[in-house]
Design goal:
Shape of chain B: flat
Oligomer: heterotrimer
Radius of gyration of chain A: 18 Å
Number of strands of chain B: 0
Strand content of chain A: 15-25%
Number of helices of chain A: 9
Number of helices of chain B: 8
Structural class of chain B: mainly alpha
Strand order of the largest sheet of chain A: 6-7-8-3-9-10
Chains: A alpha/beta, B mainly alpha, C mainly alpha
Number of strands of chain A: 10
CATH superfamily of chain B: MetI-like
Chain lengths: 260, 217, 227
């Protein structure tokens, strides 16, 4: 089992896990979103986080992306400590391994599609424009938007924008791809195109994927492991066949009964 | 500041307080004039008739886009040519009030425009008479935006009162100039006046920000 | 009025007014961006100092500041400004403080999601500012900047009280020479109005261009209402 709730007492070597949360607590005011959370993800695995809204799934992704910081606990990525923070330099070092695709795409409206994808590889990774352009065009072909390199984001549909956002994240060659409800903001007819791209990536690359979604069929297709969240804790985890076919926990059954 | 002389500050105080008094007096009257004249302009700008709207727009835009200082000289030197004689203080107050009335007009207009169209429609649906619509429905809502914005322009007017030194009105800057001319001490009077403006304007703008937060939601 | 008055006083006066406006606007822009960005800095001390600057210079009367730079500062530092530069400094520093508020507001109006996308791609804070936030914030700044530019143009008239030969000072000289004020002051007001009109026109073009750069159509926006 690659994703599991671990007890801190029997902590294995952190290096074996690509992502590792130890007793992480995150609060917003009086509201505890993550409650003493422990879990880990092994390299190359595709893990889906499910659960009712407000159960803290998105918070996990945002913590990993360093968009917020936990009140308590430690987070390791690739054996390096992310939190408690050891300063901006260390954060940037760890962040190199992580890419994220957002619910609202968050493309940069002031740049063309191509620039959206090449800007970070050029400025952050130090690629030449030509190298970055080449890599970007390959990725655009992969997400089926090879023709739209010179368009501005506002000229694209939501589904197309999200595919560009996926290409933009992949252009940084991350080890981990965080997918935060990437189809929730899309019109229903555009969802399939985005999910197909992600299925492709899951099948053809060894990128570790951490995915928050309400698309249960998609979760069943791509996941090695499914984590069921409730009230800031993992209440159940296992392979998709088990979670979707024979869930143990009452809350899981209720949740799946409501969404399926 | 090695050559700072507190006794020069003390010597300046009588003139300083005279200047404060006159400045505040000009500010109060100028504000009243700008508030009321601005209301007239605003009704012109909101008028249904284009023959009212258009000339009012031209006049207010012209006044708003040209310098207060030149307007001040215009009133001061030109009006007497037509036989209208005002004191320098009156001319200055009128100039400030007139100039800022074109700003307050925009404030009134924006405040009224910001009231949702649905409120007018609701008033119509209730068959409220026109003046009831204005006084019971529209203005109470508009006033929340209008009051803080007017306050900001009062602060701007305060900072423009030194322009009246240009026609020798004895406001703060002119008092400082006279003091300097009499004592050859330039540093202290001008510095005191400069700091006085900050000391009045900053708390005023803080107060307005609180007011704005309370009223505009 | 004779051609001589135009040639010797008014036209050079207009030129001086334009120069003053340009130089002060450049200084004010630099101040506005510097202070405005400093107000979003992650260190509180930087934000605090930038805030103090804004409050002090917004609280100051530009004319008093001008007199202070002109008459007091030479006594303090031992050398005097060229009058023109004392004026530019006073105007640039004061209007820069107002501009800083515009910059801060426009930066704050860019959705936080853009900043987050920048973090996710591992840009440095300065890269996020330069490549993502500023290009999106600048178009928002143009209309309020235009208002400030007009205020600045009007503010340049203050220099005539220091004896700098701008168009307002030229009007004063013409009045003394001709003993006639209605005509020259009317003309002067019209000159300012025309300059303001042209500046506004120019800024509208800039607004349209910069908004097109981030995919916003100003005309469609205006037609679609206040959004």
């Amino acid at each position: 089992m690659s994703a599991e709730t671990v007890k801190p007492a029997e902590t294995p070597s952190p290096t074996a896990d690509l992502i590792r949360f130890d007793k992480v607590t995150k609060r917003f005011g009086d509201n505890t979103v993550l409650d003493d959370l422990c879990f880990s993800v092994k390299p190359g695995k595709h893990v889906t986080l499910i659960g009712p809204s407000g159960s803290g799934k998105t918070t996990i992704l945002r913590l990993l992306m360093t968009l917020m910081k936990p009140e308590e606990g430690t987070i390791h990525v690739n054996g390096q400590q992310l939190f408690p923070s050891r300063g901006e330099k260390q954060l940037r070092e760890v962040r190199k391994n992580i890419g994220m695709v957002f619910q609202q795409f968050n493309l940069f409206p002031n740049m063309t599609v191509l620039r959206n994808i090449t800007e970070a590889p050029v400025r952050v990774l130090g690629l030449s424009r030509d190298e970055a352009d080449e890599r970007a065009r390959e990725l655009l072909d992969m997400v089926g938007l090879g023709e739209r390199a010179d368009a501005k984001p506002t000229q694209l549909s939501g589904g197309q924008q999200q595919r560009v956002a996926i290409a933009r994240a992949l252009a940084m060659r991350p080890q981990v791809l965080l997918l935060d409800e990437v189809t929730s903001a899309l019109d229903p007819e555009l969802v399939a195109g985005v999910l197909d791209v992600l299925r492709d990536i899951a099948r053809t690359t060894d990128i570790t994927m951490l995915c928050v979604t309400h698309e249960m069929n998609f979760a069943r297709d791509i996941s090695d492991d499914v984590l069921m969240f409730d009230a800031g804790r993992v209440i159940e985890s296992g392979p998709p066949e088990k979670i979707f076919g024979d869930p143990e926990h009452e809350r899981t059954r209720e949740f799946l009964g409501a969404v399926l | 500041m090695s050559n700072w002389d507190w006794s020069a500050v003390a010597d300046f105080m009588p003139r300083f307080w005279d200047g404060v008094q006159l400045t505040l007096q000009i500010l109060a009257l100028g504000s009243l004039l700008s508030f009321s004249l601005g209301l007239v302009w605003a009704f012109g700008l909101l008028s249904a008739s284009r023959f009212v709207r258009w000339p009012v727009n031209v006049v207010t835009e012209f006044i708003r886009n040209t310098p207060l200082l030149v307007q001040l000289f215009f009133l001061f030197f030109v009006l007497p040519e037509f036989g209208v004689q005002f004191s320098a203080v009156t001319t200055g107050t009128v100039a400030i009030g007139l100039h800022y009335s074109t700003y307050t007009a925009q404030v009134y207009k924006a405040g009224i425009d910001a009231v949702p169209l649905g409120q007018w429609e609701a008033a119509t649906a209730l068959s409220l008479p026109r003046h009831r619509t204005w006084f019971a429905v529209i203005l109470p809502q508009a006033i929340r935006r209008i009051v803080p914005a007017l306050g900001n322009y009062v602060v701007s007017m305060l900072k423009d009162t030194p322009l009246l030194a240009g026609i020798s009105v004895l406001e703060l800057l002119q008092q400082a100039r006279l003091e300097s001319a009499a004592t050859f001490q330039y540093t202290e009077p001008l510095t005191v006046v400069g700091i006085a403006f900050i000391l009045i304007a900053y708390p005023a703008s803080l107060l307005l920000r609180v007011l704005e937060r309370r009223l505009v939601r | 009025m004779t051609a001589g008055l135009w040639q010797h006083w008014i036209l050079p006066g207009i030129w001086t007014t334009l120069q003053l406006t340009l130089y002060s606007a450049v200084l004010a822009t630099v101040v506005a961006f510097g202070i405005g960005m400093a107000r979003t800095h992650r260190l509180w001390i930087v934000r605090f100092l930038a805030g103090v600057y804004t409050e002090v210079f917004r609280g100051t009367s530009a004319l008093v500041l001008m007199f202070w730079l002109f008459f007091v500062v030479p006594g303090l530092i031992g050398w005097a400004f060229v009058p023109m530069w004392a004026a530019v400094l006073a105007l640039g520093l004061s209007y820069g403080a107002y501009g800083a508020e515009v910059v801060r507001g426009a930066l704050a109006s860019v959705t936080p999601a853009q900043r987050e996308a920048g973090i996710a791609l591992n840009f440095t804070p300065w890269q996020r500012m330069r490549l993502i936030l500023l290009p999106q914030a600048v178009p928002e700044m143009i209309p309020p900047f235009n208002n400030l530019l007009i205020e600045l143009l009007k503010g340049t008239a203050l220099v005539s009280l220091l004896g700098i030969g701008d168009v307002s000072f030229a009007a004063y000289l013409v009045r003394l020479a001709t003993q006639e004020s209605a005509q020259i002051y009317s003309i002067t007001l019209v000159i300012y109005f025309v300059i303001a009109f042209l500046l506004t026109r120019g800024m509208k073009v800039v607004e349209r261009r910069t908004k097109a750069g981030i995919g916003i159509d100003v005309k469609a926006q205006a037609a679609g209402g206040t959004r």
